[in-house]
Amino acid sequence: MRRWQTTSYQAGWRFHSDWFQPEVRTVVTSLARSAVVPAITAKSLGAARARNGVSISETMTDFRALFIAAKQSLDVDALQSLAEGWAEVAETAPPISCTDVYTGLATQAHFQRRIHEVSGFAAGYQGAHALAVISVPGPQESRSHCWTLLAQLGDAVKGQLGGTGATAMYQDSAVHILFPISEGNLSRMVQCKAAIEAVGDGALRPARIKFYPLASAATALSAATTARTRLDSSCDSN
User: Which residues are paired to 184 by β-bridges?
Assistant: First the structure.
């Protein structure tokens, strides 16, 4: 996977931080175990690339880089399946964005890519990053907080996390923060909790904060995550 990543970068992959996705690991595992990439696996990667806004040209160039890195001949059938997966999703996929329109924080997709990035490539990062989850009381009269309160929440979080190297996402009445571990950053997480409690004259009080090691960060995120459309539809109706 590291050789594929490097070869893809050299071939012109534009945004290094967006290269890794779970489907990448599945493709590599298939190729390593059986020397082939099954059609369904290639198709899944193509679909994932389309959902993340990668062009068909860049998707196919990246896939060719896989076989160059593996020192194998290009599997034309797998390449065709990749293109089919990309095409099926490209016409219906919503525009990709790294920023949530309500909070100004990271979108769920971007935050998950950051989790995979940090946990999937550099073993040295494993002990250097952690996930903080700051939970706030849920709304009492609707399924989500109103957009004005969410905007204030986002501003408060961004104001506290500047310069920490952290990535934050709001999802299902909780702020998820992936951050490099340091004494200063741990203090900033606590300050961030206090800033959230001050939003809207205490509308999000009391907040609770929990820390997770990076190894369990993806599990914690998965357990706390619900469909994004719940937030969208609720805020649109309020």
Answer: none
Are 69 and 4 contacting, i.e. CB atoms less than 8 angstroms apart? yes
- The model's pLDDT over 189-225, given as tens digits with 9 standing for 90+, comes to 999 999 999 998 899 999 999 999 876 444 444 444 3
**142 contact partners, CB below 8 Å, separation of at least 6:** 234, 237, 238
C-alpha dihedral sign at 10, 14, 16, 19: negative
Instruction: Tell me the whole-structure pTM to 2 decimals.
Output: 0.55
What is the rounded end-to-end Cα distance, in angstroms, of the chain?
46
